[in-house]
Amino acid sequence: MAEATSAPAQPELKRAIGPKLLLFFVVGDILGTGIYALTGNVAGKIGGALWLPFLIAFVVAFLTAFSYLELVGKYPRAAGAALYTNRAFKIQFLTFMVAFAVMSSGITSASSAALAFGKTYLQSVIKEFFSDTFTVSATLVAILFIIGLALINFRGVSESVKANVVLTCIELSGLVIIIAIGVYAVLAGDGDPGRLTQVDPAPNQTALVAVTSATALAFFAMVGFEDSVNMAEEVRDPVRIFPRAMLWGMVIAALIYVLVAITSSLLIPADELSKAGSSALLKVVQVGAPGFPLWIFSLIGLFAVINSALINMLMASRLIYGMSNERIIPRVFGAVHPFRRTPWISIVFTSGVAIILVSTADIAKLGGTTGLLLLVVFTIVNIAVLVLRKEKVEHEHFRAPTWVPVLGALTCAYLASPLSGRASADYEIALYLLAAGLVLWLINRVVHGKVEFDPEKLRK
Fold first, then answer.
1. Cβ(183)–Cβ(25) under 8 Å?
2. Where are the transmembrane segments (predicted)?
3. Long-range contacts of range 77-80, CB-CB < 8 Å, 24 or more positions apart?
4. Fewest C-beta in 10 Å: which of 29, 164, 278, 308?
């Protein structure tokens, strides 16, 4: 009888991604809102040594990448941190909170992109083509931006990895423009190299805390590499291809970030970058290449934040939908529209949360919260890889040196802690988001009782 009612076996996903496409995917997933929107905020925390937080953030992310590589080689499935947490600790509530934290990081990341869209790059385009007296509410634009993403999400979006190559090239072009401006400035004898070693702590703050607080914020720019593990089932020979593609992708992204940071500090004092906020890179273009059409860079910036926001909102709504299907949050979130075939309740919920965030928080707080949530997740993943060493698999796979996940867990935990100088607002926003997840969990327990779930199905 069980055989008669069981669902037919689903075919495997097509393994169409080779090493070059995976490399572009990793680079494209990292590049985006972080560097385009938070350069000025990071400068305000550290001073002229703007490149240092991005370099340290890369090192911390690089350590964690080794843990992801060992786990994706060991379990080449599309579930990521939730799967690893479930396998290692077998605590359903912890698995749920990890999945919900990842979902929340997608919403905060998309919200920061929405604010960058409304407050920075769109405003620049408006000033270029319209009178300076023509103004629009940046918050209203950000809300409309979120609603627009929701409509696209509702309609249904299917992006191939090959299309991601084009998107990555466009995002990359804006950062290459900044680096080219820096090279030109150095060759012309412009800029002040002395700024590159300046660390300017805030009053009653040590130099170490200035560096770590800036790194905690800059870490937002390095996240995204972990999303590539969700492509594992569509990669040809993932055990062999993943390590080189992920690590080289992170190195390329970090090199670009450091060069952009060096260019910014060379041309503009840290206090001016800080005052510019999310428009810091626009100021770099203005100062370093006054003849360059600013609207071109603004359009590239618009594209970068739109792409980042759309990907993150898609991920967030699908995770909520997956958790509903697994009956770990109320089933209403799993409702699928009969015509569009998209999870419309999940889309409305995640979009509503994003609208609240863009109405009440700024870019720095949202970027910091994104980094905080993922640093906590990364701490758990680094511990999970050590716990899962006792679980053997038949096939060969990448194995990280033991000291790497240990150091990865310690550095991630430190950057997530108040000791790093992290703003208290980051914890407040994160707690509100996770509290919402706890409420959904409790409602479901009251209605359905204890439910066992499979995290491998969350993103499918």
1. no
2. 21-38, 50-72, 93-117, 129-152, 164-187, 207-225, 246-268, 294-321, 342-364, 370-388, 400-417, 429-447
3. 77/232, 77/233, 77/456, 78/13, 78/229, 78/230, 78/231, 78/232, 78/233, 78/234, 78/456, 78/459, 78/460, 79/230, 79/455, 79/456, 79/457, 79/458, 79/459, 80/226, 80/227, 80/229, 80/230, 80/459
4. 164
Question: In the chain, what is the straight-line distance between the N-terminal and C-terminal CA atoms, in Å?
Answer: 27
Residue type, 21: L
Pairwise CA distance, residues 450 & 441, whole Å? 10
Q: Is 6 helix (H, G, I), strand (E, B) or coil?
A: coil
Q: Is 47 helix (H, G, I), strand (E, B) or coil?
A: coil
**DSSP character for 398?**
-
Distance of CA 135 to the CA centre of its chain: 30
338, amino acid identity? P
- Measured from the Cβ of residue 155, the count of other Cβ atoms closer than 10 Å reads 10
Q: Which residues pair with 88 in a beta bridge?
A: none
Other CB atoms within a 10 A radius of the CB of residue 58 amount to 24
Tell me: the pLDDT tens digits for 27-41?
877 887 888 989 999
What does the block give as tokens for 456?
Answer: 């491998």
Three-state DSSP at 10 gives coil
Q: Which of 36-45, 102-111, 299-308, 373-382 has the lowest mean pLDDT?
A: 299-308
125 CB contacts (<8 Å, ≥6 apart)?
295, 298, 299, 302
pTM score = 0.88
String of DSSP letters for 146-208:
HHHHHHHHHH-----HHHHHHHHHHHHHHHHHHHHHHHHHHHTT-S-GGGGG---PPTT--HH
CA–CA dist 158, 156 (Å, integer): 7
How far apart, in Å, are the Cα atoms of 247 and each of 66, 69, 146, 229, 290?
8, 9, 32, 13, 36
